[in-house]
C-alpha cells in the first residue's frame, strides 16, 4: 500500500500544475519550492526534462517507482505505441476509474474508497487500487456505502464524463467500456519523454 505521503503543494509548485487537484498554493506562490525558487534556474538537461515528466506522471496517478516501472514494462510488451499503452494502463487502474466516474473528488480519495472496501467490480468486492479494468467491467459502490457524505458530495459536484466510461449517478454504478484513446485523456503528460527515459 505504498504511496507518496509528503507535502502535495510543493509537488504541484515544482511542476507548475495542480496535479493533486485544484490548489490555491499555485496562485499564491507560482515559483518553484525552495529558497532558490524565485531566482534564475539553470537550463535543464534533456535527461532532467525526461525525468521530470516521469515524476509528474507518477505523482499524478499515485504510483511509486517500482509499480510505475512494472506498468511501463507491461506497456512495452503490448502491441502499439508504448507511451499511449502506458497511459491507457494508468487510466484503467481501479482507483483512477473510480475517480473518473466521479465517485471521489481526488485520486487519493478514490484510492481510500477502494482500500476500505466500498467498491465492487462485477458484483464482487475488490480492494486493490492497482487492479486493471477490462472492457465490460461494472464498477459500483456497495449498497451500504452509497450514502457516504464524501461520495454524495463528489457526485453532486462532478459533472465530467469520459467516452471510455458509462456512468449512472443515480444508482452510483459505472461501466468500463474500453481503453481510452490518447486524445481523450485530459492529463498534460508527454508520454514520449517517459519512453525515451526508460529506453536509455
Average pLDDT works out at 87
Proportion in helices: 40-55%
User: In angstroms, what is the radius of gyration?
Assistant: 18 Å
List the uncertain runs: none
Topology:
Layout: H1 8-15, H2 25-28, H3 46-61, H4 65-77, H5 82-92, H6 94-101, H7 107-115, E1 119-121, E2 124-125, E3 137-141, H8 149-157, E4 165-168, E5 173-176, H9 191-198
Antiparallel strand pairs: 1-2, 1-3, 3-5, 4-5
Can you give a write-up of this model?
By secondary structure, this protein is an alpha+beta fold. The protein has two domains: 8-89 and 188-198, Ribosomal Protein S4 Delta 41, Chain A, domain 1, CATH 1.10.1050.10; 93-182, RNA-binding S4 domain (Structural Genomics Hypothetical 15.5 Kd Protein In mrcA-pckA Intergenic Region, Chain A), CATH 3.10.290. Helix content is 43%, strand content 9%. The chain contains nine helices and five strands. The protein has helices at residues 8-15, 25-28, 46-61, 65-77, 82-92, 94-101, 107-115, 149-157, 191-198, and strands spanning 119-121, 124-125, 137-141, 165-168, 173-176. It has a five-stranded antiparallel β-sheet with strand order 2-1-3-5-4. Helix 4 (65-77) crosses helix 5 and helix 6 packs across helix 7 (107-115). The protein is globular and about 55 Å long. The two termini are 29 Å apart. The model has no long low-confidence stretch (mean pLDDT 87).
Amino acid at each position: 500500500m505504498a504511496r507518496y505521503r509528503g507535502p502535495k503543494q510543493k509537488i504541484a509548485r515544482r511542476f507548475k500544475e495542480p496535479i493533486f487537484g485544484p490548489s490555491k498554493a499555485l496562485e499564491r506562490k507560482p515559483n518553484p519550492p525552495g529558497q532558490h525558487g524565485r531566482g534564475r534556474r539553470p537550463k535543464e538537461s534533456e535527461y532532467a526534462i525526461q525525468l521530470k515528466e516521469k515524476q509528474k506522471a507518477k505523482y499524478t496517478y499515485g504510483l511509486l517507482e517500482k509499480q510505475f516501472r512494472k506498468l511501463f514494462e507491461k506497456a512495452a510488451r503490448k502491441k502499439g505505441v508504448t507511451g499511449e499503452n502506458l497511459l491507457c494502463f494508468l487510466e484503467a487502474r481501479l482507483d483512477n476509474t473510480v475517480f473518473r466516474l466521479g465517485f471521489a473528488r481526488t485520486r487519493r480519495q478514490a484510492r481510500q474508497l477502494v482500500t476500505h472496501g466500498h467498491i465492487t467490480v462485477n458484483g464482487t468486492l475488490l480492494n486493490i487500487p492497482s487492479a486493471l479494468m477490462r472492457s465490460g467491467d461494472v464498477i459500483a459502490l456497495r449498497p451500504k456505502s452509497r450514502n457516504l457524505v464524501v461520495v454524495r458530495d463528489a457526485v453532486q459536484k462532478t459533472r465530467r464524463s469520459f467516452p471510455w466510461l458509462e456512468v449512472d449517478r443515480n444508482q452510483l454504478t459505472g461501466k468500463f467500456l474500453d481503453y481510452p484513446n490518447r486524445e481523450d485523456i485530459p492529463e498534460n503528460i508527454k508520454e514520449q519523454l517517459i519512453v525515451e527515459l526508460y529506453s536509455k
